[in-house]
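Next comes a single protein record:
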Amino acid sequence: MKKPAPPPPTPEEIEIEMENYVSNGIDYFKRQNFRKAIEQWKKALQLIPEDAEVHNFLGIAYHRVGELDSAILAFQTATRLDPEYYQAWNNIGYMYFLKGDYKGALVYFDRAIEINPYYEQALLNREKCQEIIEGKLPIQALEIYESAARLDSLELKIRNYKKALAIDSNYVDAWNNLGVAYYYYGYVDSAIICFKKALALNPDHPEVHNNIAFILDASGRYEDAISHYQKAIKLRPTYVTAMINLGDTYFHMKDFESARKIWELARQIDPNDPDIDQRLARILEKSSGTEPEGGQE
């Protein structure tokens, strides 16, 4: 006699298995085991082949192992399944950018921006792409800059940003990132010099205004910090990071109403940011008198 065939898995069992594969892939990706992440997400897609987000995850992992053509195919599948998936459109553009097809990349960056005109990553990618096409940004400087951004060591970041600036001393983003690296390395004065250099080259760079304001706030120069944060937000009205930081400065000044207003505005733009909710909760504690004595760390 033959044993009866096992019953087919229930929809609930399939969903649990799929969720495990997706979750395992994310864990492997976070540990930078990209091959294992690819393996897990492929297994998930055998169960849920129409899931655009997992196809996008797969494309990102392929990019990390240098398989750009496979990444493009994964991102294209994501956009076919979800034509409004602007992050995946941007990712296709970035793969073409890395392959040196700058005009081709622009098409995809433009598509991402068409869907979401406020998507910062696509806006920045498009700007870099246009600068290369117009000959304003040497490719060698960009390559060194990109490699520096992926490094964990602050010393190596500083060294590589300096190399990029040796090729193009007008590279505003390199000055900005060098300033950030100096700040976290503990060289605050050097960071300020870099940010001022960046602003001299481009007075309308929102990230630089945000970064120099952050240092000014830390040194207690609140009014100067507010001025730079407000400039950053004026230049980019959806700049949530600058809004959060501006609220922090108001909070440090004990201007809790101004802090609440700017954080409420930030939450309208990004209702899923937990940092905003945490800050608004602190305002509520202040107004209700429930904050522990001595304040919060």
Remarks:
- Residues 11-30 form the longest helix (20 residues).
